[in-house]
Task: inverse folding
């Protein structure tokens, strides 16, 4: 046990000094390493601080440049949107004009169809395919052609409004997206290291997936496509409006010219029918006068025949009496000759008068038939005149062709 409790072996002085030196060298090496680490840390901190500030400044500059780019495109989009909205309003106004022009065709067409129907009520020889009917048919074709053309133009205008509204929608959507992007970039550009909301932002931040982003070139191309589309539709709308303007003037002019041609033909037809009716009335007056004259002539013939019947009976009675003379007294003397001649001549005169009387009666019947025919024709002309001068003219008077 005494051996176990013996004190440790003592070191010699050289060992003690060597141990101290080792401790000094170790401490010195540790201190040197610490100093180098501190220096490296300071260098790294200074370098990272410089890099961080430089990157933050560069990022801010990039954000400001991006904001300027967004503002530029927003200005372009705003200008194009304003032009598109204005063009849509112009197209809507143009559409209203076409609709009014289309509505204005219904009344002239109704009048033309009614005039054609009324003129079908003409009778006898007056039911003729005259110039008025030809012009009415032309006017019907013109109005129907104008109606069809305006209907197609209205459809084109509606389609162009739809296309312009589509361009407006994409411009507005692009503007909304750019407004939101500018607001976000404005917020990002004013963020600093000491901003109070920075912690909340970083907590909810989600890094964009590279595959879901677009390149700056694609970003510019996207807005440029919207602007080009809006510009194209605006130019198409301008061309369409110019076409509609020309079309409205042309169609109104065509309808006015045809309306005038029909009205002129109607006036000329009325004048011609009045002249024809006047001639018929003149002939009727002459025929009535001749009927009166022929009736007097017929009465005179009857009187003349009656006047010849007395002398004829006297002559016949004388001959009959003289035929009773006896024997040789039954002589063919000059008195007998004269009586025979008188009976013969009176009989011939009566026969001739009777023939003339029969002819006069036939002529009177012919005159009466002609009178009736003339009166009927005058009635037909009056009926036709009433249709053309009163009904058709009054129907057409309120019709007015305007340029819308």
Result:
């Amino acid at each position: 046990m005494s051996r176990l409790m013996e004190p440790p072996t003592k070191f010699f002085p050289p060992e003690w000094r060597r141990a101290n030196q080792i401790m000094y060298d170790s401490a010195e090496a540790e201190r040197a390493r610490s100093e180098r680490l501190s220096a490296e840390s300071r260098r790294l901190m200074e370098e990272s601080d410089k890099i961080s500030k430089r990157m933050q400044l560069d990022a801010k500059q990039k954000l400001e440049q991006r904001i300027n780019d967004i503002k530029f495109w927003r200005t372009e989009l705003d200008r194009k949107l304003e032009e598109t909205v204005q063009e849509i309003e112009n197209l809507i106004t143009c559409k209203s004009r076409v609709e009014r022009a289309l509505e204005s065709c219904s009344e002239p067409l109704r009048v033309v169809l009614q005039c054609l129907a009324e003129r079908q009520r003409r009778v006898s020889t007056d039911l003729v395919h005259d110039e008025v009917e030809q012009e009415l048919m032309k006017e019907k074709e013109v109005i129907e052609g104008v109606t069809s053309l305006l209907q197609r133009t209205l459809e084109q205008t509606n389609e162009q409004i739809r296309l312009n509204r589509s361009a407006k929608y994409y411009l507005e959507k692009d503007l909304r997206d750019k407004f939101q992007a500018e607001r976000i970039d404005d917020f990002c550009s004013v963020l600093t290291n000491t901003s109070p909301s920075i912690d909340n932002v970083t907590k909810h931040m989600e890094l964009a997936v590279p595959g879901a982003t677009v390149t700056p070139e694609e970003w510019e191309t996207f807005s440029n496509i919207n602007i080009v589309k809006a510009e194209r539709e605006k130019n198409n709308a301008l061309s369409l409006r110019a076409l509609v303007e020309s079309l409205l003037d042309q169609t109104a002019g065509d309808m006015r010219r045809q309306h005038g041609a029909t009205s002129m033909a109607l006036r000329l037809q009325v004048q011609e029918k009045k002249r024809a009716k006047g001639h018929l009335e003149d002939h009727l007056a002459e025929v009535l006068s001749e009927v009166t004259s022929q009736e007097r002539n017929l009465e005179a013939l009857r009187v003349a025949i009656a006047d010849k019947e007395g002398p004829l009976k006297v002559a016949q009675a004388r001959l009959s009496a003289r035929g009773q003379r006896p024997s040789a007294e039954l002589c063919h003397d000059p008195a007998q000759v004269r009586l025979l001649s008188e009976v013969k001549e009176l009989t011939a005169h009566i026969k001739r008068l009777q023939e003339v009387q029969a002819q006069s009666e036939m002529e009177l019947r012919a005159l009466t038939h002609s009178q009736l025919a003339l009166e009927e024709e005058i009635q037909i002309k009056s009926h036709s005149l009433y249709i053309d001068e009163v009904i058709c003219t009054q129907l057409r008077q309120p019709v007015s062709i305007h340029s819308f």
Residues 207-211 have pLDDT under 50 and may be disordered. The first helix runs from residue 13 to 104. DSSP finds six helices and no strands in the chain.
